[in-house]
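Lecture notes, unit on protein representations.

Consider one protein chain, 308 amino acids long.
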Amino acid sequence: MRAILVVNPQATSTTAGGRDVLAHALASQVKLDVVETDYRGHAMAVARSAARDGIDLVVAHGGDGTVNEVVNGLLADADGDPNEIGHVPALGVVPGGSANVFARALGISADSFEATHQLLNALENDRSRRVGLGLADGHWFTFNSGLGWDADVVGRVAKRRGKQTTAGLYLRAAVRSYFRPPLGRPALTIRIPGEEPAEALTAFVSNTDPWSYLGERAIHLNPGCSFEAGLGLFALNGLGLPTVFKHVRQALTTKSNQRGRRLVRHDDLPMIRIDAAEPVNFQVDGDLVGQRTRVEFFSVPNALTVIV
């Protein structure tokens, strides 16, 4: 088996020692090349080349941003069309970030040494899993995407963080983005096949549960969402403090389905279209992509093989 290990040395918890242990362990089972990323988009470029060269396995060692780049590189030749997915290398993940949502949703340990052991064991026993992905405006996402408040938070954090990213940093960014939204609060119109259009001010789209983590605490918006089902939608058509406190508390304290008169919520959706009255921030897998006035989200079943 030919494999490439893609390492993001700037990820929160990656170290040179951990990289060397992982590389040495993998090299005992596969023919391995190691690439350290040194610019945004590098992991995507490496994964795209690996897919075109017929590599069998690409292992991402970094945070969710690194995993997302690798996934988008592996599927780059599909050009955003689920019907064009051909042979794609399998994906392995050894977490090295702060949240590691995708890995944790797959049951991969957040500890890089334990995750390395899990990966080696899965390779030895030929164990893998097919997972569905989300596709939004040509960008593949593994666990979540969104328009509005959450994307504002992602953008604010990206401007301020160094190597260390903490729950406190995200909390401060959430509070500041709530009281001082960088682009205001343009109205969003949500369109789902077979449903009447719904209005909202912020929208969260999930590909799995939990939606994310705040430190060690999981945030549950669509608890029924999974890699084997369609997309989950969680949107609010009001952002008054009582509404926000209610749903934040529920998201952090329970896995049960949320309810509320300001809540627009659906599970297992094949497609969602969201139109914005004015440009709003748009994020995928915790990275700000830019601003949009329309995004179409698609669920793509069995899009990728993951070694777990």
